[in-house]
Design a protein that fits this description.
223 residues, nine-stranded mixed beta sheet
Length: 223
């Protein structure tokens, strides 16, 4: 285990525990800013913005919560439009899979602490991490949460979206997953990767450090 600074955990914890408002969209030139909870209320407006052809980058800023189905809706729209994605601050649960659907996906610049929490069913093995979020593999992982236990995630990824069985819903735990953090220091940014099993509650320092899990090597961030 590794404990990060109290400042960093405080900032990440604020994002995890705060009650975020519904999703808000704001178009700034070729950049579409998305914040709040990806609860599905803004999906149609989001798709309309991307279909217009003006947006080149979707910026998720402190976007929290949301279901696996909503994650799929945002991800499909981003993938179809071929736009880039960027994270500023916190990006968790549905936001994380939407972020991974970008043609290029990066953390923002500046002095902000960035944190990306990607829900997963269980602790990934080292071999899984290498390919898990590269290309279409991210959507295959997302399908684990919309496929009834014993079903085929690959088939589910190709099929029209349907309401998941209770078992699939139970597997989606927003506070359980792989957490990628990037924090500014006097010597540049420091990146760390953790597995949070969901039992850490408010104490995110109990999340397990994953060695040799640099987000660039894993394809979570693009250069």
């Amino acid at each position: 285990m590794k404990t990060l600074s109290g400042t960093l955990w405080g900032l990440v914890l604020a994002g995890l525990t705060a009650g975020a408002p519904a999703a808000d969209l704001e178009l700034e030139g070729t950049r579409l800013l998305v914040s709040g909870t990806l609860d599905g209320s803004a999906v149609k407006d989001f798709e309309t913005h991307l279909a217009g052809g003006q947006v080149r980058t979707v910026v998720f800023e402190n976007a929290l919560g949301g279901s696996a189905e909503v994650a799929g809706d945002y991800a499909r729209a981003i993938h179809a439009a071929g736009v880039n994605t960027e994270v500023k601050g916190q990006c968790q649960a549905a936001c994380a899979y939407a972020f991974l659907a970008g043609k290029e996906h990066r953390f923002g610049h500046g002095f902000q602490v960035h944190a990306l929490l990607i829900p997963v069913v269980g602790r990934p093995q080292p071999a899984e991490l290498v390919t898990r979020w590269r290309g279409d593999e991210a959507q295959h992982t997302l399908a684990e949460f919309t496929t009834p236990a014993g079903g085929s995630p690959t088939d589910a990824a190709a099929a029209p979206p349907i309401a998941p069985e209770d078992g699939a819903k139970d597997r989606w735990q927003p506070n359980q997953g792989v957490l990628f953090t990037s924090s500014p220091t006097l010597f540049g940014r420091v990146r760390n990767t953790f597995y949070c099993d969901g039992t850490q509650g408010r104490d995110l320092s109990r999340c397990e450090l994953l060695p040799d899990a640099d987000p660039y090597k894993l394809g979570v961030l693009t250069p």
